[in-house]
């Protein structure tokens, strides 16, 4: 079970954390989903990118997401590379991960909404978090995806 959540920038990652998050992403997206794609896209190193790590009591990364500033992937802030290890699935870790990622995006970019490119089979999971479908289904790397948007009220000044 996830014991600790870390919200860090690229330069704050230890070598062990960097290796662990890349291993998790490759294990889930490339190996498990049998989807060879360009995993290293340069967005990890952007100065505003946040890496959210869910670490278990042994120090292993069991959950990860990347939170991007507006105008990196979409005009809005975005959350991507959402991954949970097989052993941590079904325990609510993905929900905790997304709730924390949403909170990071809202805190850092309170005037923006959050856009994601979700795998279609996860649409209901994201809808339960408040995301609304805003595109048709499209193929990305051979997997059906759709764009979804989370809008929220901003503080009035």
Tally the helices: what do you get? Answer: 3
Element-by-element helix/strand order: EHEEEHEHEEE
Give the N-to-C terminal Cα separation: 40 Å
- Overall body shape: globular
Binned strand content: 25-35%
Structural class by secondary-structure content: alpha+beta
Radius of gyration: 15 Å
Are there runs of 5+ residues with pLDDT below 50, and where?
none
Total count of strands: 8
Helical content class = 25-40%
Mean pLDDT: 92
| Largest sheet properties | 8 strands, mixed
If you had to describe this structure to a student in words, what would you say it looks like?
This protein is an alpha+beta fold. It is built from three helices and eight strands. It has helices spanning 15-32, 93-108, 123-128; strands spanning 2-8, 50-56, 61-68, 77-84, 114-119, 132-133, 138-140, 143-150. Strands 1, 2, 3, 4, 5, 6, 7 and 8 form an eight-stranded mixed sheet that branches. The longest helix is centred in the N-terminal third of the chain and has 18 residues, at 15-32. The radius of gyration is 15 Å and the shape is globular. The termini are far apart. The model has no long low-confidence stretch (mean pLDDT 92).
């Amino acid at each position: 079970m996830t014991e600790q959540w870390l919200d860090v920038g690229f330069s704050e990652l230890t070598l062990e954390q960097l290796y662990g998050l890349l291993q998790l992403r490759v294990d889930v997206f490339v190996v498990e989903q049998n989807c060879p794609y360009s995993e290293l896209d340069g967005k990890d190193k952007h100065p505003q990118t946040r890496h959210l790590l869910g670490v278990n009591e042994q120090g292993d990364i069991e959950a990860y997401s990347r939170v991007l500033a507006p105008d990196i992937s979409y005009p809005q802030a975005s959350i991507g590379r959402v991954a949970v290890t097989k052993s941590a699935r079904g325990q609510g870790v993905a929900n905790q991960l997304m709730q924390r990622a949403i909170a990071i995006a809202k805190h850092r970019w309170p005037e923006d909404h959050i856009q994601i490119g979700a795998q279609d089979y996860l649409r209901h999971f994201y809808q339960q978090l408040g995301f609304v479908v805003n595109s048709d289904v499209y193929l990305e790397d051979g997997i059906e995806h759709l764009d979804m948007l989370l809008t929220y009220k901003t503080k009035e000044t």
